[in-house]
Write a structure and sequence with these properties.
The chain has three domains: 8-86 and 174-182, D-Maltodextrin-Binding Protein, domain 2 (3-Layer(aba) Sandwich); 90-165, D-Maltodextrin-Binding Protein, domain 2, CATH 3.40.190; 196-281, Alpha-Beta Plaits (2-Layer Sandwich). Helices cover 28% and strands 34% of the residues. α6 runs parallel beside α7 and α8 (210-220) runs antiparallel to α9. The two termini are 15 Å apart. With 282 residues, the protein is α/β, with parallel strands linked by helices. The strands form three sheets. Strands 1, 2, 3, 4, 5 and 11 form a six-stranded mixed sheet that branches. It has a five-stranded mixed sheet with strand order 8-7-9-6-10. The protein has a four-stranded antiparallel sheet with strand order 13-14-12-15, covered by helices on one side.
Length: 282
């Protein structure tokens, strides 16, 4: 995804977090805005303080980011791009420290879990921390030469730490999918030769076969569903909400027919955005 202008992109986390790394990858010349939470990152864009927000939606190992599914229906922003970021956990330490010096290693519990076997094999004690990048920053300030941290290579660069082991995770291939949000929708008209994805939100009543009827139009019109997520929202259990990723552009004839049929059986249908499929999918 090529950017011709320079702006500001918001993310949740501390400098050096994997969301920060994704921002640097997609928007290398842009200013990044670190936010305490996902709500703040989205509000930076909604209020005009930033042009884009980089938000993680799901991880190949840990699954979906539950909080995001509750926040998306409430934001006025549009999805204009997706990005798949490979998660390369690095074992970090203070300069001059070697593996034999380290007794314990600290990081976010999810990162510790993904590196569990490596940690066990090296005889280190795992210590849970709030955030990967925050732990890297704490380690740099502590001067604790018997402690290591698990974080990104960017965190090592920002906080002056050494990488003792790259790809420290037990299983290679751990990847996080991010969505890029903007105040304005893009890609209203498709370009020749570009594969598109359309993200939708809709609700159905809690009645028999409601979802089957709502999605039937995609099958009969040959539209491929890439993702279907359901969740409950609000104080009642009366309605199920769905997030759907569809392969195609809303202007394509089969998509027009499928969306018309969806409108008959679903309510509160909202197009979150249409955007080019990331190369990772190929």
């Amino acid at each position: 995804m090529q950017q011709e202008t320079v702006g500001r992109v918001a993310y949740q986390g501390t400098a050096g977090a994997y969301s920060h790394l994704a921002c640097r990858r997609v928007f290398p010349a842009w200013e990044t805005i670190a936010c305490d939470d996902f709500v703040s990152a989205l509000e930076q864009v909604a209020n005009g303080f930033g042009e884009r927000a980089m938000i993680p939606l799901e991880n190949s190992t840990a699954g979906r980011v539950e909080e995001i599914y509750r926040l998306i229906p409430r934001t006025p922003l549009f999805v204009i791009a997706e990005h798949f970021e490979p998660i390369n956990h690095c074992l970090l330490a203070l300069p001059g420290v070697i593996l034999a010096d380290i007794d314990e290693v600290a990081s976010h519990p999810q990162a510790l879990a993904q590196c569990h076997q490596r940690i066990v094999n090296l005889g280190m004690k795992p210590v849970a921390a709030v955030d990967t990048a925050m732990e890297a920053r704490r380690l740099a300030a502590s001067q604790d030469r018997q402690r290591g941290g698990i974080a990104s290579a960017l965190a090592a660069e920002l906080y002056g730490l050494e990488i003792l082991h790259e790809n420290f995770q037990d299983v290679i291939g751990n990847t996080t999918r991010f969505l890029v949000f903007s105040r304005d929708a893009e890609h209203a008209m498709p370009e020749t030769g570009v594969e598109y994805i359309t993200s939708l939100l809709f609700s159905v009543r809690n009645i028999p076969a409601a979802l089957y009827k709502a999605l039937g139009g995609f099958a009969t019109n040959g539209v491929n569903l890439l993702k279907l997520e359901s969740y409950m929202d609000g104080a009642t259990m009366e309605a199920s909400h769905f997030h759907v990723d569809i392969q195609g552009h809303p202007t394509q004839p089969n998509m027009v027919l499928a969306l018309e049929e969806l409108g008959y059986f679903a309510r509160d249908v909202r197009v979150l955005g249409t955007y080019p499929a990331h190369d990772y999918r190929v």
